[in-house]
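Reviewers asked in the last cycle whether our approach scales beyond single polypeptides. To address this, we selected a multi-component target totalling 588 residues and predicted its structure end to end. The input consisted of the following lines:
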Amino acid sequence: MDLTALNLAEVRDAVRSKTASAKEVALAHLERINREDRNVRSYLTLSPERALEQAARVDRAVASGDPLGRLAGVPIAVKDVILTRGVRTTCASRILEHYIPPYDATAVERLEAAGACILGKTNCDEFAMGSSTENSGFFPTRNPHDLERVPGGSSGGSAAAVAANLATVALGSDTGGSIRQPAALCGVAGLMGTYGRVSRFGLVAFASSLDHIGPFGRSVRDLAAVLQTIAGRDPHDSTSADVPVPDYEAELEGGIEGLRVGIPREYFAGLSAEIGDPIQRGIDLLQNIGCEMVPVTLPHTDYAIACYYIIATAEASSNLARYDGVRYGLRASEYDDLRDMYERTRDAGFGAEVKRRIMLGTYVLSSGYYEAYYLKAQRVRSLLARDFNEAFRSVDVIVTPTSPVPAFKIGERSDDPLQMYLADIYTVTASLAGIPGVSVPCGRTQGDEASGVPPLPVGMQLLGRHFDEARLLRAAYAFERAGGFDRG
Amino acid sequence: MALTEKEVRYVAELAHLKLTDAEVQHFMPQLDSILEYIAKLNELNLQGIDPMAQVLAEGPPGFALRRDAARPMFTPEVALANAPDPGPGLFKVPRVIDKE
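The resulting structure, written as structure tokens, was:
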């Protein structure tokens, strides 16, 4: 039995039934990482001691018949913007290259309390700013489906690790699509819950009103099990919601007969056939299994990217002011005075995209521009949220493509930041409205043998009402059961 | 191009970034094209629309506030463990006040 090919529920059953020990599962993954990750490069840091200590705890519990957590023995990768006590956390930035956090993120603490084994920390765009993982301060991660292509981003390392069986599940973070888009490009599933559903405590802040932690998996049940573990009120995060957490795994089986599925025309206008055709087949399948398709309109969609890149960069410029070479992280080796130390430290520590976003965010918040940009974007954000509220009066979930393009070649877009930003066109709206979204594999592009383009994974995005993750996952699960969850 | 070199250097100063001349020349057209793109928000009539600063945090009244009470925190040693230049119970920085 190849222990690295199992999904979460299969690992859990194997460990419980003593078919495999947690130690064997962890070792199988660490060995595979040693062998395969030199090509994909999904991990920045491995934590074998921590994984094996945890596996030993699980195995002792199995041996003595103690109750086991929901994720007992499940190997998990954690995006390197999420703090892990004693395990280096860099945010893929040179400015935090040697940073060892003194505490765990709440999500990490809850995963380990449920028995998960943390294999290591995954690569991403620096401070989660990007859509390709090319902005890592260390090295780009490659798409397991074609090593010449990007895995998407910013959580590209987590998506690639799950796609390449280098972890059973993974945590990522999503600010404008950073879980859903790489999930689509790597042919796995990824979930961003409602804003406030999962504690952000220990998630290094990029844009605080938009940041989320969420799971990647190779099946919908995997997402449900991880969400179940990490969701719920956390006193350490004042924005974490005090809303009951349903039993997401049990709710999967509920069926979707009569589910009203909205098709927003703004998300399909101008969509290429290579993405549009597989998505249409996905929509047809949903209809065949009992969903009712309803055309809806989200009229302000076209303004979402502009709105997002004002709000996200404004918040980022403020959040990243803390990296000044005083309390932690890099300090420039030579400087004239305090001010010079700040500037040289930040110049040496930040990469180009982070500087670009800090500049943009500082500009839109600066005196004389605040109203013209930042305040205006906040008003547009209200309109985008209102669009969804209106649409959800007549439908239960909304279906869209996750990304307008499949995985692109490394280097293809990196010189044109605006083109890169437009890769987020279908994902930023949900982030701004604070509603949950999931991307599920939905077949692949045709590819073009003559020009050497292989078929590449396509992702379908399902969006739901605030705190309606259970219904969203049920729809995704029904889609999977009907054969729609095609990993390409 | 609407964005001037002077503005780019001014914003860099506000952001505590020391940009090289090459970086200024590199970023200027990129920032300019992004600003040109986001100006499309001007097409919208936003009269009477409230700004949305935050997705509502949901829960019972007052749930987001904790009791204002002392609680365990890091020891000074832990807090200083990642400091580039730690002193006894403090972070060292270059002198900011000159001696008379």
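The two ends of chain A are 23 Å apart (CA to CA). We regard this as preliminary and will revisit it once experimental data from Aim 1 are available.
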